[in-house]
Design goal:
alpha/beta; 10 strands; about 10% strand
Length: about 650
Amino acid sequence: MGQLAKPEVGKGPAATLPDVRSMLASAVARHKAGDAAAGTLYRAILSAEPSHSDVLHLLGVTALQTGAAEVASRWLRRALVVDRAQAYYRNSLGEAFRALGRPDKAREQYRLALTLNPAYPEALANLHRQPLPGDDASVLLERFCRLRPAKASELLAVADHRLLSGRLADARTAYRAAVALEPATVQAYVNLGATASREKNHAQAAAAYRRALRLSPDHPGAWNNLASAVWELNDGQGAVRFCRRSVALKPDHPDPYANLGYVQRSQARNGDDFAEAATLCRQALRINPSHVSALNNLGIVNLDLGQLDEAERLFNRTLAAEPKHPDARFNLSLALLKAGRLKEGWDHYEARWETGQLPTVNGQLRAWQGEPLNGATILLHAEQGHGDTLHFVRYAPLVAARGGRVVLAVQPSLKRLVAGMPGVAAVHALTDPFPKPEFHCPLMSLPRLLGTELGTIPGGIPYLYPPAEAIGKWLGQPLPGAGLRVGLVWSGDPRLGLLRANLTDRRRSMSLHDLAPLAEVPDLRFVNLQMGGPATQLAEPPAGMDIHDPMGAITDFADTAALVMRLDLVITVDTSVAHLVGALGKPVWVMSRYDGCWRWLQDRDDTPWYPTMRLFRQTAPGDWTTVIRRVADALRQLAA
C-alpha cells in the first residue's frame, strides 16, 4: 500500500496556509484512525488549493484502501503532474497498478521510486514481491532488511533464497538471525536443519529438526527430515519410526513414503522386505506420479530383484523429471552394466563422483581422457574397496602399453602385491605423499576410456603374482596334508560405522555355522582365510569341521596371495578375496547374494572377468541354505 505523506507547507497563497495546515493535520489524523470523513476533509482542502500534491496523493491512497484502484490511479497521476520528484507517489501508483493486474506497470513505478530514493524500503519490498526473471530477489530483500529493522519472516525469506542458491553459510546466518528475533519460528529451525544436511553435518541437522519438533510436535516435514538425518547417523530404526510418524501426520504427502521405501529396501533381508519397499514407493507415486525420489528408489528395488528392464525404465523416468539427478544416473549405470551393456553403462558410471558417496579427487590433477601419453607419467588410483582395486588394476599394463609411465596409488595392504605388475613403474599407498603426475585416472574409469565391452574384457589371467619373499615365507608354513585344500571366507567387512555398507554386508555375509553342510563332504582340508571380527567364530566351528587357521601370520594381501597359491580351491562370499583369487588364476567359488554385484551380470554361473571363477547365486533373497547345498554337492563331485 501507499504510505501517508508528511504534508509540506508553502504550496498555496500565504493567507490560506494556517487553515490548510490545520485541516490537513486533522484529515491525516482521521485517516490514520480509519475515519471515512478524512476523504471529505481532503476534498475540502483540494477545493481551496487544487494543486496540493500531498492531498492528491492521499486521496489516491484512500481510494486504494477502499479497493477503488482505478480511481486511485487517477488521483495519483494528478499528484505526479504537480510533483514528479516524490518517490512515495511513484510507489503508491505502483500499488494501484498491481491492484489493477498490471504488474509490468507496477514494477516500472517501483523502480522509478527507487531511482528517486534508493533507500526506500517499501518500494524495495514491493519490487521483491513480483520480480522479473532477471531480478535478484534476495538482493532486493537484503537491501530492504538493511534499511529498517527486519521481521523474522523477512529474514526467513532471505535465508531461503540463500539456501536455494547454495550459499549455505549465509543462509545459516540469516536463519539464526530469524530465530534470534522470534525464537518460536519453527520453519527457521527446519531450514537450519536442511542447511546442515547439505553441509553433511547430520548431527547438527538432527538437533535443528528436534528443536523444531519441540515447538511444533505435529510438523510432518520436520519428522520426515529428522528421519533422513538419523539415517545418515546410522540409526535405521529411528529413520523408520520417524518416517512412519510423518506419514501418520500427513498421509497424502509422498516424501515420507519414498524415504521409508528406501530405508526398508536398504534393510531388506528377504523377499517380503523388498516387496514392502516397493509398495511404499508406489504409494508415493500414487500421490505424485513424478516424485523423483520415489521413482529412483523403486528403480533400486527393481535393480535388486533383477528386474532390469523395469529398473532402467524407472531411472530414465527419474532423469526425465530431473536430468541432472546423479543418483539416478549412477543407478542406471548399474542396471546397464548388470545387463551386459557395458559401453552405455561406463558412461553413466562416471556419475558416481557426483553422488557425494566418494571422496573428491584433487582438482589440481589433470584427468586423462584417453589421449596419447607419449611417455608422460599417469597416476592410476584406487577409489573404492580393496576388491574394486584388485578387479580393475588389470588395466595398468594396458595403459603402459599406450605409452604411459604408470604409477599406482592403492590401499596400503595392496601395495606389496601390485608392485610386481608388468608395466608398473612405481606403487604408492594412498596415504603416502608422492610426486605430482602429469595425468591421473581413477581405476574404475579405465574400462570406459579403453572401450571395454562384453566381448573385449581383458580376462587374461593371472595378472597378479605374489612377491618372491611372500612365496618363500608361505612355502615354509605347515598346511593340512592329504585331501583337497579348500580356503573359506564367509563374511565381508561389517563396517559397523557405515550403515549403508553394513546393511549390504549383512546380505552378502553369512555365519561359519551356515557352512556346516560342507563338513559332510569327505576328503577336504579346510583353511581359514577369514579376517576381522567374524573370524572369532572359529572358536566354535560346525560339528565335524576342522579348520586350519594360519591368518595370524598374514600381514597384507601379498601374504594372502602366497597362501592361496598353496590351496586347491577357495569358497567365499562376494568380498575382496574373490577378486584376489580370480586375479591369481586359482579356482574360486563365489556365493553371491540375490541382489548381487553388477559385475557378475545375470543368469550365469561364470564371469568373463575371471575365467577360473564359478558363481553360486541365491535363488531367493536371503536364502543361503540352497546355495550351500549346491556348493556341497559340487564339492562332492570335485572330491570324488
